[in-house]
């Protein structure tokens, strides 16, 4: 990944003819990712939970990128029925999908469970995207050069997954739950890349993280918990330390479009993993554990009921 210094949205190759699905595209990094892909000619699907915010994002994108092809389709990653409905709509509406950006996520929320009974971070950040990717896989396999980019975080290094307690039933810590879900994102990418390679597929599975980017992700949890002081601290950090969402989206855009991205790459900001041009990022060794990837995959299939057509176990 040499020569990324100074890499910007102007370096994104032409995306004409590519259909890109971006989850959580109504704000922050997801919105910027969708906007810049549309600016370079991609047809963009704004996959968002809120119809109001998704529609507003589509209207905003149309103003900022006249002539852009972008449309909102509702997706609630915390509801597996919604994931299935979204995937069915995409398969019916689009002739192949060239890019899936698994961007949406939640961070450091109070203990909670989704409609399917799973811990919120694990369900939204990992299980929903695992199911979505599997359900869209036939459409991805139909497109030469297709990619799956899953957003993790440098905070994955705070905790490995506990394969015996994926839903945090024995104990719960909001930052631990978040870190484990981000580790799951990287293990999923690792195992998906292995399984694609074993079948000879050209689909590239890669991961990215934004460093410390200024989005509403940091303030959502303290606001939900009524922690005004904590919310103010995050707001201060966002103003003084964080880079803007436009910069935070660059690693995801690089992973999604740059020609030298390899399977299982992890792209993040170059300076200490916090800010700067996209570069290959350090990752915890447990995110490259083949056996852990297999166990998480098997558990995810069981918990979601989604199996990947055409992909068996990874070789070796």
Largest sheet: 8 strands, mixed
Helix content: 40-55%
Number of strands: 10
CATH superfamily: NAD(P)-binding Rossmann-like Domain
User: Structural class of the helices, strands and pairings?
Assistant: alpha/beta
Alpha carbon gyration radius: 18 Å
What is the top-level CATH class?
Alpha Beta
CATH architecture: 3-Layer(aba) Sandwich
> Uncertain spans, ≥5 residues at pLDDT below 50?
218-223, 229-238
Helices and strands, in order, run as EHEHEHEHEHEEHHEHHEEH
Spatial order of the strands forming the largest sheet: 3-2-1-4-5-6-9-10
Give the strand content.
5-15%
Describe the global form. globular
Report, as a whole number of angstroms, the end-to-end distance.
27 Å
Q: In DSSP terms, counting alpha (H) and pi (I) runs of 4 or more, how many helices?
A: 10
The total number of structural domains is: 1
> The CATH topology is what?
Rossmann fold
The average pLDDT score comes to 90
GO molecular function: oxidoreductase activity
Protein name: Oxidoreductase
Domain Ketoreductase: 18-178
Keywords: Oxidoreductase
Would you write up a description of this structure?
Residues 18-178 form the Ketoreductase domain. GO terms for molecular function: oxidoreductase activity. Belongs to the short-chain dehydrogenases/reductases (SDR) family. InterPro entries: KR_dom, NAD(P)-bd_dom_sf, SDR_fam. The protein has 10 helices and 10 strands. The chain has an 8-stranded mixed beta sheet with strand order 3-2-1-4-5-6-9-10, with helices on both faces. A two-stranded parallel ribbon has the order 7-8. The chain has helices at residues 28-39, 51-64, 80-93, 120-141, 174-199, 217-224, 228-240, 245-248, 250-257, 290-304, and strands at residues 19-23, 43-48, 69-74, 99-102, 147-151, 204-208, 213-214, 243-244, 266-271, 275-280.
């Amino acid at each position: 990944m040499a020569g990324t210094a100074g890499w910007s949205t102007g370096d994104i190759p032409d995306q004409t003819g590519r259909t890109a699905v971006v989850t959580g595209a109504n704000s922050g990094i997801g919105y910027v990712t969708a906007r810049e892909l549309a600016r370079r000619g991609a047809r963009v699907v704004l996959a968002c939970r809120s119809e109001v915010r998704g529609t507003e994002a589509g209207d905003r994108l149309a103003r900022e990128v006249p002539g852009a092809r972008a449309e909102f389709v509702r997706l609630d990653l915390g509801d597996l029925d919604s994931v299935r409905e979204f995937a069915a709509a995409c398969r019916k509406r689009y002739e192949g999908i060239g890019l899936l950006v698994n961007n949406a996520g939640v961070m450091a929320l109070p203990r909670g469970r989704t409609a399917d009974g799973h811990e919120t971070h694990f369900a939204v950040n990992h299980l929903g995207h695992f199911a979505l990717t599997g359900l869209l896989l036939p459409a991805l396999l139909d497109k030469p050069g297709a990619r799956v980019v899953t957003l993790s975080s440098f905070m994955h290094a705070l905790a490995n997954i506990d394969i015996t307690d994926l839903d945090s039933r024995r104990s719960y810590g909001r930052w631990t739950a978040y870190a484990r879900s981000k580790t799951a994102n990287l293990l999923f990418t690792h195992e998906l890349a292995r399984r694609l390679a074993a079948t000879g597929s050209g689909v590239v599975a890669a991961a990215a993280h934004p460093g410390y980017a200024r989005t509403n992700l940091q303030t959502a949890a303290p606001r939900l918990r009524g922690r005004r002081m904590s919310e103010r601290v995050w707001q201060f950090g966002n103003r003084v330390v964080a880079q803007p969402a436009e910069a935070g989206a660059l690693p995801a855009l690089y992973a999604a479009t740059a020609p030298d991205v390899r399977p299982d790459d992890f792209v993040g900001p170059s300076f200490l993993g916090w800010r700067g041009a996209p570069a290959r990022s350090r990752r915890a060794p447990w995110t490259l554990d083949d056996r852990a990837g297999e166990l998480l995959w098997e558990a995810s299939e069981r918990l979601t009921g989604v199996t990947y057509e055409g992909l068996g176990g990874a070789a070796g």
